[in-house]
Amino acid sequence: MLRQDAGRFMLGKYLSDKKIPWRLRRRLGMAVAGNTPTASFLTKIGKMQSAGCRLCKTVREARGESTDGLADETHGHINSAGCEGMATTLMAAHHSIWRHLYDSMHAAQKPKSKLKFVTLDKESNMSTLWLREEFLRICSKEELVEKAWDIEVTIPLKKSQGTRYNLDPGSFYVNRFWGRRLDGVAINETLKIVYILEFKRSTDRDEGFLEVKDAEAHEQHKSIIGALKAAAPEWEFEQIYFVVGNRGSVVESDFYTKLQKLDIQGGKKDKLLADHVTQVCKAHNRVIESFLQQVQGGTRPTIEGSRENIGHSVHV
């Protein structure tokens, strides 16, 4: 809570706002304090025997797979793509935060801005974007895929892509490139600038979470950026990544710098930050609520005072 330049003052306002249900504020406060009732924490205080993720175990058992080598069920794990039982909930949380921010930035643009936000309805893949006239004016699909091929063949296959590759190795890299998805795109045709927008949620226990996710997003889009720069050298392409911590951290200086690049009105920046942190906090509650419902096995919690009994003599 004492960390500077991480939106902690907004988090403090959220935690002290009595208009927000106490249960929501308590769950977020527990996450900040590091005592969310995950298996890892419960094992640490002697309430459970194993720190292995219960949700991953359930998913593996349903598939008939071994449950050896389970990842520890930590707050970071259940908020990451590594937790097989939380995938759907996390995807919904990701999209709800990003769509709210994306729409808010579009609405807060300077009236005379030449920057156009595209994909306002949903994220788009490269193939869909290059059906649009403004992108075809940047370069043709043929020029772009020719440059993309050289980069795509250097990117290792993921385990999940093996079957697709084996079916048609000749077209795999082309199809992978056109299938790459972008969270958002903003384009200024007058100045010939394209901003590739990406949104990331991250564990924010360590102060360097922003740099870690920046590097991850850069690697994710290196074939897109590399191919665009090679196919259309007269254009400028820049990646802008918005990163939030799963405990409500938003690096203020970084956030404001990116809003400025996207022609957001100066008078609306503070409200955008406040609304963004609020959305992050609300999404955190939905994630933790889903986690608790799953580890409770679908049973309704008992109540002692105003706290939920999730078993193991633990109340949250």
Can you give keywords for this protein?
single chain; 316 residues; alpha+beta; 2 domains; four-stranded mixed sheet; two-stranded antiparallel ribbon; 15 helices; 8 strands; 50% helix
What does this structure look like?
The protein has helices at residues 8-16, 22-33, 39-44, 54-63, 75-78, 87-107, 126-129, 133-136, 141-152, 162-167, 169-179, 209-220, 222-231, 252-261, 269-295; strands at residues 116-118, 124-125, 181-182, 184-188, 193-202, 236-245, 302-304, 307-309. By secondary structure, it is an alpha+beta fold. Strands 1-4-5-6 form a four-stranded mixed sheet. Strands 2-3 form a two-stranded antiparallel sheet. The protein has a two-stranded antiparallel sheet with strand order 7-8. Strand 4 (184-188) and strand 5 (193-202) form a beta hairpin. Helix 6 (87-107) packs antiparallel against helix 15. The chain is flat, with a radius of gyration of 22 Å. Mean pLDDT is 86; it is low at 299-307 and 309-316.
How many distinct folded domains? 2
Give a quick account of the main beta sheet: strands, pairing sense, barrel closure.
Answer: 4 strands, mixed
Any idea what the radius of gyration is? 22 Å
Which H/E pattern describes the elements? HHHHHHEEHHHHHEEEHHEHHEE
Shape: flat
Question: Distance N terminus to C terminus?
Answer: 21 Å
Show unreliable segments: 299-307, 309-316
Instruction: Give the tally of β-strands.
Output: 8
- Helical run tally: 15
The strand line-up of the biggest sheet is 1-4-5-6
Arithmetic mean pLDDT: 86
Tell me the fraction of residues in β-strands, as a range. 5-15%
Helix content: 40-55%
Helix and strand composition category: alpha+beta
